[in-house]
Amino acid sequence: MKIPLMFFTLLTVLPLAAQQVPPRFGAGPQPATAMEAVAAFKAATGVTRLTNVVEIRGTGGAPTPSVWTVVVHDPASPTRLSEYSVRGPRVEDRRPCQLYYPKRVPEGYFDYGKVTVDSAAAFRAADREAGIARIGFDLIDYRLRCREFSDDPIWDVTMRTADGVALGTVSISNKTGKVLRAVWTRPGPRGALAVAEDSAEPGARPLSTQVPVVPKVLEVRRQAERVPVPAPVREEVPETIPAEPVPALVEPPGGGVGPVPCSDQSNEQSR
């Protein structure tokens, strides 16, 4: 019996492809996402509204990092910035941030209330671009930062090998979820320098137009954080105040004009 070539190819390729998928990317419990880490940060610090954020980063994700670092403006810090390490529901450490002032300045500050795309959605968008570019990776670094010359937050998702070599970075708008830019690094021929593929370069391959969908549970959580404050109840005041009833006027026996009570209570008082 002759086996079709296509059937033989599927039997040989599919098991190999399954073996090449890193087991840590398979189905299983994942650490907290960036939004869940921020929720834990708020609960631990008592912060209700998180503003003046420099960045939220996590490294070595497979695909989700085990620790997230939240960097915020802090006038009491010697570097004017403080960073918090969040692992699961706990804030493990707080220390002055040494990455910026005075060596360099951050891109800017953003309000966390503007964040609508979680790290899970950012991963799906970056993973889709990596698949289109035929880039395989082992680890992922996430960085939620401010876009240059604005206060809009964006995601920078960097793919790396198991040895930590950077393969490319995908930038994603946190306002729309759209991929803004993708830069990939490929080794040159015969040991030459690496060749960068930049989506911003004229004539480059267009980026995907798909927008990652935010999971429903995250939408509910974000709506819960944005519960509107009820407006104060105002007592309705009529535009015109009704006039009091005017007593009827009759002529008494002695002459002249006098008031005659027009209610039972007035009649009792007159008696």
Structural features, described:
There is one protein chain. This protein has about 270 residues and is an alpha+beta fold. The protein has one domain. The protein is built from five helices and eleven strands. The chain has helices at about 5-20, 35-45, 120-130, 215-225, 265-270, and strands spanning about 55-60, 70-75, 80-85, 90-95, 140-145, 155-160, 165-175, 180-185, 195-200, 250, 260. The strands form two sheets. It has a nine-stranded antiparallel beta sheet with strand order 4-3-2-1-5-6-7-8-9, with helices on one face. A two-stranded antiparallel ribbon has the order 10-11. A hairpin with an 8-residue loop joins strand 8 (about 180-185) and strand 9 (about 195-200). The longest helix is centred in the first third of the chain and has 16 residues, at about 5-20. Mean pLDDT is about 80; it is low at about 1-25, about 215-220, about 225-235 and about 265-270.
Summarize it.
With 271 residues, this protein is of the alpha+beta class. It has helices at 5-20, 34-45, 119-132, 216-225, 264-270, and strands at 53-61, 68-73, 81-87, 90-96, 139-146, 153-160, 166-173, 179-186, 195-198, 248-250, 258-260. The model is unreliable at 1-24, 215-221, 226-235 and 266-271 (pLDDT under 50).
